[in-house]
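Hey, I'm writing a tutorial for new members on how sequence and structure tokens pair up, and I'd like a real worked example in the thread rather than a made-up one. If someone can provide the structure for the chain below, I'll link this post from the tutorial.
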Amino acid sequence: MKESFRGFLDRLSAQGELVDIDQPVDIRHVATLVDQSDKALRFNKLIGYDMPLVSGIIRSRERAMMSMDCANYPEIETKLQRGIDQPIPPRYVDTSPTKEVIRTGSDVDLFDLPIPMSSIYDGGPMITAGIVMARDPEYGINTGIYRFMVKEKALTGIDIVTPNNMRLFAQRAFAQGKPCPISISIGNHPMEIMGAGYRAPIGVDEMAIAGGIRGVPVELAKCETIDMPYIADSEIVLEAEILPTGWTQPEGRFGEFTALMGGLHWNPNVRIKAVMYRRDAVYYALHMPWENTWLAAPTRYQAIRRALRTAGVQVKDINVTLGGRAFWHAVISIRKQAGEGKNALLAALSVMDLKHVVVVDEDIDVFNGEEVEWAIATRVQGDRDVIIIPGARAKPLDPSLPVMPPGIVPTGAKVGIDATISEGIPHERYERISYAYADSAKIADYLGGKADKAGLLDRNKLDDVAAAILKLIADEPLYYQDLAKRLGTFGFQIVARALGDLHAQQKLWQTADGKLCVRGSRFDAKPPGQR
């Protein structure tokens, strides 16, 4: 798929998913207007700016599916897996439309770009959709998405408090007292955003994954002032260096994917050396938190599925829940063999920043919170089925963690709940309620006037019915419902009376699974302790 960022915007507009606002708008109002809208918004006349701004383009499940050209949401994970399994290396081009305007040195002025404020406690305008590329002498190029708080016209911070490859590159440069050159591409197709957002192993080219998702190479071009590539199709590119200041500069606050206001972060500063953009560039502001969620969740699905496959566990379904902000919580149903509930927990909890995992049997709908809670309520013993792993790597944005000194990566607890049916539990304990005649008695028919035929109610037939019952259950124990159905020519009252008479005569008993049988037969259930 060769669709460009602009092509995607055109498609959104054509399908009524992008609305143009052509009247003058104060940029301070952008974030709350996007938050209130069920459509993506393009602001064409921001007061004081010559450049339009678009936001909310992947803020819904439907627009995320559109962005990946998928008919359903699970297909996004399939496309991501294709990109991982069949990466297509990027292709370098000599130039790109992004170089139509180039500003360097003292001409660099971030305040000319329509970088909006977002939430009420922001520390400043935030660049939120920057696809960042860095190079390490040993590990090669890494690509990710990081935010930058604008501090001066050519100075920002970069939020790399979380352990990741970009932080490692910056640390390695800092240890040598050197800046870390980076390119920051803004205004890119969501397929590049997904590739950049995937946490690939070090040394793996995320833009090759993006190419695999697309089915064609991502085109890269070379920067003007640093020896780094950028995404050639970008609307805007910033050429920059992470300064060797260490994690000593205050940055934030900012509204996070957690739907909470983050605290003050300590990060390095970034010097912007050049700004390049198209003459008719469109600035893209990624809106938090949901625009960060719909393409992030499939990366978790893929990583969980891979971990469980490695552990030899057969997965039926996975739900990386929205309540866990598509980062921290997963519910997984498995086709269980003995002991695999715990194995599945250990495998899944090793994935990224997953914090809480619930594993259920394949009969549980992982997308139905009531069913999952029911499984926990009826299948879990806390001392046997809850696993707590302390001291695991944690995401610094978790507000429940203790406050840590700048630059220190926190650790926390991971929790797993094995809500599968334990080995050795009788199967009948977990047979769900199923109502008699559900296959034939339909409410719509009765509301439409259906009437049942009356069965025989002659009490003189009680002995005949009782004899028929004993004959039926002599060789094949039956549930009460089965007997009532087989003797359907009689009214239920007569069948019930006949069974009552047999019980009074002590001719009836029950099997271990509750079926009616002849007392004293080989089918008799025995009381506990007498088996």
